[in-house]
Amino acid sequence: MTERPLDLICLGRAAVDLYGEQVGGRLEDVQTFAKYVGGCPANIAIGTARLGLKSGVISRVGDEQMGRFVVETLAAEGVETAGISVDPQRLTALVILGIRDRDSFPHIFYRSDCADMALAAEQIDPAFVASARALLVTGTHLSRPGVEAASKAALGHARAAGTQVVFDIDYRPVLWGLTGHAAGENRFIADPGTSQRLQSVLPDCDLVVGTEEEIHIAGGVAETGAALRRIRELTDAVLVVKRGAQGCIVFDGEIPEDLEAGLVQRGRPVEVFNTLGAGDGFMSGFLSGWLRDRPLDDCAELGNAVGALVVSRHGCAPAMPSREELAQFRTSGRPDAALDRLHRLTTRRTPPAEVAALAFDHRSQLEAIAEHHGAPVARIADFKLLIARALEAAAGDAACPGALVPGALVPGALVDERYGEAVLARWAGRGWWLARPVELPGSRPLAFETDPNPGLALRAWPREQVAKCLVFYDAEDPAELRAAQEAKLLQLAEACAETGRELLIEVIPPEARRGAEDAVAGALTALYDRGIAPDWWKLPPAKSPQAWAEITGIIQARDPHCRGFLILGLSAAPAALKRSFDAAAGSPLCRGFAIGRSIFQPAAEAWFAGELDDAGAIAAIAENYREILALWQSRSAAAS
After folding, report:
1. For 13-25, what is each residue's pLDDT tens digit?
2. Which pTM value belongs to this model?
3. Within 13 A of 224's CA, how many CA atoms are on the CB side?
4. Which residues of 221-247 are buried (b: 16+ CB within 10 A; e: fewer)?
5. Residues 373, 304 share a domain
6. What is the rounded CA–CA span in Å between residue 636 and residue 625?
7. Which of 391, 410, 388 has the alpha carbon at shortest distance from 399?
8. Is 297 in the same domain as 363?
9. What is the SS3 assignment for 519?
């Protein structure tokens, strides 16, 4: 295969899956749902992208929030979305799914005149198809004349460009109008008309993949051997029969009388949680080998391994493994807690290279300022909106463009719910790096501000918000105090993992140890020893490059997947912050700063005292932020 910008383009369904979160009951009794990208082609595009292929999608979504969710999620996964068009009239398709037991997965397709079924032949760009080494089409997009024409147009462009064709039979009788809406999980109804349409594309295919039931419908015979031989009469493609837990059989030539004489690859034994994504996982794994020209037995083993991982988890697209995770699973042979953690860490969205955060999640400090000046605490919310406007003004500068772009410096903020609820709503979806505190201010031992179970609170947060927890911690604390605080952090880490949320831990040594050079390094070592490994650290300024080097070495050795650390301010003056920024310049894990009172406190004192108006406060805070940002950028320039 020749080198092309894309390895694979997947054509067809791009939808939203709403998976029931209550397991073991009827779909009628499900109370809450998790939202994922769905649709066989979209799932495979994500699965192959996570395995290192360059994937794209040709589909259509509605001009509404669900359509934007699909496109944004695919783009965040590294999938090329140039082939996705927006339909101004139709809605993005939805699927509601449940997990009743290991054999029953009821689901309802909401696809009546949906956007992806309005894909038309004239919307297929021949140049885009030619940019890929392979085109994947699915059976569902042969079920209606319009999408059938679009699929066949794409097949024609592929053949003209020398692009290989992969056919996922993807048979759902309900999507062919062969059963009622309530029977969405029905996988097979014989229908000669459907068989004829599926067979019409077989001569153009290089790889055909389906379950035994799908092979039956494509072959038009309800017996696997006979169906395979009928398919072989129509195509020279490699044929793959998926057999669930038994694995798969691959046929690269004539179909033998004894199907077991084909290339048999046994499945991997895992505890099945949800089989709905098994086929898309299998295809992703198989293609990760096939598009790298690996032997067919290796492709089949990769397909079985990915399928096994996906069936052990909730959902389909989010369950797809990363390349690193798949390699570990192939070695270990079974999913476990360590693999689940690796899955979460290696499928996170790419972070910005550097974060320039204004931290104003302060509650008790601003309450004290308001009380000192005789102002009602309700005014703190008003002041936080002024801080937000100041950051917006400063982030509008060319030096800080304000978009969450991997590899770039982006603005960020730490904002609380108690007084910053309006700010959090104001910035929803802006694309800034946002963190939100969970700790009860000043608590030692650590306590949470809202519910004793932080997971309940985190479920109500938008996904973009990082959970931030400040802990006053030292490795030399009494054992009882350390144990209490570590237990809380472990509880929070588990809640973040369960809700798919990143965690930032801010470590400040107690007053008596705050100036000790070894305090922070000792605290990190002790927390790692306890199994506490957050996505981010927020750390006090260190005075020397040696101190930062020691901290960096600890993090790299104990958690290679850590995002890095942000430097906090502790009300330090700009000159002191510059020294700390410069000292950290050599650390590859220094990802930015999260500075608060050094930026906003002078304006807060004057504003609450009535000595500064709103415009003056905004201007003063914006200017202080710009000054700290300039110090950081001069440090970055020196480091580079």
Report:
1. 999 999 888 888 8
2. 0.91
3. 19
4. beebeebbbbbbebbebbbbbbbbbeb
5. no
6. 16
7. 410
8. no
9. helix
